[in-house]
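haha ok so turns out i had the wrong file open the whole time. this is the CORRECT one, sorry everyone. sequence first:
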Amino acid sequence: MLLRSLAATLVLILASAARPAIGQDAFDPRFASPDLPDPNAYRSASGRPGPAYWQQRADYQIRATLDPAVGTLTGEQTITYANRSPDTLAFVWIQLDQNLFAPGSQGAQTFPTEGRVGGGGFEGGIEIRRVASGGSDLPHRIRDTQMRVELRQPLAPGGSVAIEVDWSFRVPENGADRMGRDGELFLLAQWYPRMAVYDDLGGWSTMPYLGQGEFYLEYGDFDVALTVPATYLVGATGTLQNPGEVLTAGQRAALDRARGGGAVVPIVTAAELADPASFRPATQGTLTWRFRAENVRDFAWGAGPRLVWDATAWEGTEIHALYRPEATAWAEAAEMTRHSLAFYSDYLMPYPYPAATAIEGPVYGMEYPMVVFVAPESLREDLFDVLDHEWAHMWFPMIVGSDERRHAWMDEGIDTFMNLLSKQAFFPESEPVLENVAQYAAAVRAYREQPIGSLPDEFAPESPALGIGAYVKPAVMLTALRELAGHELFDAALASYARTWAWRHPSPADFFRHVEDAVGMELGWFWHNWIYTTQTHDLAILGVDQSQAGATWQATVTIDQRGRLLMPAVVTATTGTATHTVTIPVEAFHGTDRATATLTLPARADRIVVNEGPVWGDINPQNNVWTR
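then structure:
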């Protein structure tokens, strides 16, 4: 925060400068606001759920068997779907995400086969063997990654239906960098048929899974039984229900010690992996691991025979790290996880789940409730960056269930912003905000930018566009908003948003309204420019005139808005060791690019700066400073 001198008399003079002004009644497109839906009984004008807000629920009972020899996963499940909407439903939609990997899928036609999220080049796809309810088959039609199921009787408001689905698929090696396998190690996600969301915003959400965009899901409870070879260890969403059947007595005792917190406890060491009999209760046949998770929107798991297992705890949450012995940097993964859970719990709201499991494998970085998949990484800082980002996702979108299929910035961007604060705490010598803004500024000069508000699948594939538009630029935006609103008010607003929309489905309008209500600012111009345009922010000092008037000096500073993304101009003058600050509000630039600020100072200024530091997101900070 900038210090203000009590001795200084600050006089702000706002004037149009050399460029012609638009009349005050004329429209200045830089002050446009997003076209938001009107508040209603479901979503209020304050950005909170309305009195009639409703949300569907889907509970799952799943039994699945992994056959590593042929790389297949076979399962049967029952979905209990509760209709809490005011509408009667004659049919439901179910997501079949594994069809991304079927020959000729829409995703394979959209993104390069050899690319990171490409779905082609693999003879995969899910086989639906049975869809039924109450013992009777249900008519169904499959369209790419969506399946429409006709109900035997319309599902009235307040009713529920149990839908049984039997299925199987071959596990792809590169599952769009979100799941997959590497030899005997399997990371399983998007692995079971999942209910599509039905909400008040658009009815059924039936956008196909193309690989680059992520997911939108309902909340519910999961009871899952996973049958794997006896030599395998399993990490999964939820808590293990039958440790006596799948763990040795020594491992159970070690886990009890780990639950006490403190030092990380080895559950399975690298040395033990050479002899399965030393760390498995059986070495022949299969064992079934049973997990339960409550009030989550998804379930993911990983399994393999050569996994080191470390454990610790934080505030009653079990923390697990499963990794192959050659991933040596992962020895600190459990401790890094503990930092992330503690930091985001303090910043937003307490981590609500009983477990947090990080699994190393052939996925760069992906998040699921209570589980993250992260690549080996060789450098300590790189491992922290990815782990910390994925753990931030436990709040956005695992707890705050925004629609990732349409609004990637609402989780990726908010998380990237929070990562900057978390990394500064873990690596005090780092400068993550400066690095983030520098990355953004370099990218917008080198590549074609796309608006933050673009659909994830509309970002140019295999280019920096998604990384900048969904991750980096939203973090720059929120950092600037935090400076604009004040750290205390903004931090409280973001925490309030997380608590208010926990286990619900907020829209961008809900976020905008909630933040504006909490910080007490009208920010339509801010959202419009940052999210729905590709304008950039570039303030410059055009000139400084200083003159002495008795015992004081006057400094008249001319500011130019060289970027079309407007921001207030915080002008700070330094005299000796004191600083003197005045802010030109954004409204002063309506119809003009220039304004002046006059500061009355106790001495001649040695240095004057506008919007100092990277926190304002200025892409050209070199023209922000004047020195005498």
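DSSP finds twelve helices and 32 strands in the chain.
again sry for the mixup
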